[in-house]
Amino acid sequence: MPVGFAAPDADSRPLHLIDAAGAEAFVAALSPMARRWIEAAGFTGKLGQFALLPGADGAPGAAVLGMGDTAARRRGRFHVARAMDRLPDGDWHIATDLPKAEAEEAALGALLSAYRFDRYKAGSAQKARLKAPKGVDAARLLAIAKGEVLTRDLINTPASDMGPEELEAAARAIARDFGATVEVTTGDDLIAANFPMIHAVGRASPRAPRLIDLRWGQGGPTLTLVGKGVCFDTGGLDIKPASSMGLMKKDMGGAATVLGLARTIMALALPLRLRVLIPAVENAVGGNAFRPQDILTSRKGLTVEVNNTDAEGRLVLADALAFADEEKPDLLISMATLTGAARVAVGPDLAPFYVDDDALAAAIGAGGAALADPVWRMPFWAPYEGLIEPGIADLDNAPGGGMAGSITAALFLRRFVTETPAYAHFDIYGWQPRAEPARPKGGVGQGARAILAALPGVLNL
């Protein structure tokens, strides 16, 4: 089933959302037959409890989902999505009045619960479809959901079918759909165009490295999104062990997320000028691979000592960020599956982000809360600047010591943004390690909805 809402005028059955405090009164008000059904199911309003209620013909005519209490609901999100795979085939509507924010989260969760990655194996489609609750912007939520579907599909696709060329094709497909333009610099042309670190990281792969440059919009403030597009990461000559290489198809999660966000922005026709830059490479092992202790000269002119070829993401992002910074956009955002240190710090569910501007940080945090996209601000901690200065070159791509790895990576990237006053960096995971409501195990977008919600206030749209 494609992601979408039921038609507004479709006949539909009610889905009641009942918390623990209201369960007794709800059950008491039911007809005797319905009461027997729900009592047989042991319904108490506990979060996630589900029961069907009989219609006049004895077939299921309604459903009820337990919503628990406030404490239980705080331990997760998209709770209404828990019902979607258990509802019988057909159209449904939420029969409980909800505040607007809760109605939006319920509707978005219902949309995202329909996602299936079925490129290689057919799966069982979700049979139920929910009507958009009254008072929500259904078109906006659908645009958000379709952007997230794109992100998930790109991340879930294995590297055999999602290399730099295929990532370019995905960007071109979005551009065709929304009237954007795409320019791509590929292979040895990266050297002539002064993207030396993108070329160095990707040159060992037979799949040519490239910089993808998508532009859309004719007027308004300027927003540039930069996404790490490492389509597979062996670690290079500092090769990863098998246990660390298993999920490296997702190392282009930053690129997938900015493309999903770009699709949403274009679908909503936001009044801004959008640019998306994706350095797309495969970090491979070969005789011409870049080496530990090599010193690379970046587009910005800063020299970088390579102390670990597995810290390649910041190298390709650095050239792309320097290129973006030359235009001085009103807002510049980078997104990358950059460090394991970020996962140790905040786990897989939170998207840590770095920003100097307190107002921008507050807007992103509020946006994440509004659209069920949790983020967490981390510090550009200036006292650690010395850790990324090796002495033999301007910068060190992999400081030793094993501490503050996400912070030092963010500080490294900030060195390449000197002309743009508003810059934020997201160190995302891009992967759902276990199934949760509206989020099956696999690729997932992080931070995009938070950014989207922040844009109107930040850019005065």
From TrEMBL:
GO terms for cellular component: cytoplasm. CDD domains: Peptidase_M17 (cd00433). Signal peptide: none annotated. Pfam families: Peptidase_M17, Peptidase_M17_N_1. Residues 308-315 form the Cytosol aminopeptidase domain. Keywords: Aminopeptidase, Hydrolase, Manganese, Protease. It comes from the Bacteria. GO terms for molecular function: manganese ion binding; metalloaminopeptidase activity. One of its GO terms (biological process) is proteolysis. InterPro entries: Leucine_aapep/pepB (IPR011356), Macro_dom-like (IPR043472), Peptidase_M17_C (IPR000819), Peptidase_M17_N_1 (IPR048816). Gene3D superfamilies: Leucine Aminopeptidase, subunit E, domain 1 (3.40.220.10), Zn peptidases (3.40.630.10). Belongs to the peptidase M17 family. This is Leucyl aminopeptidase. It comes from Albidovulum denitrificans.
